[in-house]
Amino acid sequence: MRKWAVLFLASGLVAAGVRYAVTRFPRGTEGPVSEQGSGPAALPELPPLGTACGSRCGVQRWAVKTLSDPERELVDLRPVQTTVESLAALPREPGGEFWRGGDAERQVFEVEAYLAGWDLEADQDLHVILAGMTDQRTTMIAEIPDPACAGACQAGFAREFAAARTALLACLERPNPEDRPIRVRVRGIGFFDRDHGQAGNAPNYIELHPVLSFECLP
């Protein structure tokens, strides 16, 4: 049984305060999106794909997961602000091993959510579980690649991946004597995963993968 570090969000009443506690989580087991406008600033322009580098870490759709795929130039880096609940309600449009599916896999999204759990995956991704701000029972996954992995170091966003991983770990280490829920802001590219027993998946298996920025909110 795989060990998980998970912050369980109490279901129900936000007015009464959402609380969480650290525990272990065993492995296994159509909504609107906001329009682009005067929202968050776009990411830097897509850098050219670098030469092969790094260690082999993942396999399935790995190039898409690390933004080193042949269709990477189709990704719109202007972030669309949305919610966990809206993304979890989108119809599934997964792509193939080296190509992207529908619009969601070609768009950067930004969400505010509760941090509901995290783990270090075998492929060295930091696997983060996000819970909706309105409905904490709705969750989705966000994955932060290791910039030392093949694909991730080639994509030109190694600095962003490293900064996001550092921000997550700093968020977890921040003192929280009143046991308040952890709110975060996460920006990443839409990605439809397959069902492989992952914890915290959305009903449609959409993820933010890769995560390009992570912020712990007050």
Question: Any descriptors?
Answer:
disordered N terminus; 218 residues; 11% helix; alpha+beta; five-stranded mixed barrel
Can you walk through the features of this model?
By secondary structure, the protein is an alpha+beta fold. The chain contains three helices and eight strands. The protein has helices spanning 62-65, 84-88, 158-173, and strands at 5-7, 22-23, 76-82, 107-120, 126-131, 139-144, 183-192, 206-216. Strands 4-5-6-8-7 form a five-stranded mixed barrel. Strand 4 (107-120) and strand 5 (126-131) form a beta hairpin.
User: Radius of gyration, rounded?
Assistant: 16 Å
**Hey, roughly how much beta strand do the residues contain?**
25-35%
In whole angstroms, the N-to-C terminal distance is: 34 Å
Report the total helices: 3
Taking pLDDT < 50 over at least 5 consecutive residues as the criterion, the unreliable ranges are 1-39
Order of helices and strands: EEHEHEEEHEE
Strand tally is: 8
Mean pLDDT: 85
Give the overall shape, derived from the CA principal axes: globular
The strands making up the biggest β-sheet line up spatially as: 4-5-6-8-7
**Portion in helices:** 10-25%
Largest sheet: 5 strands, mixed, barrel
Query: Helices and strands: which structural class?
Result: alpha+beta
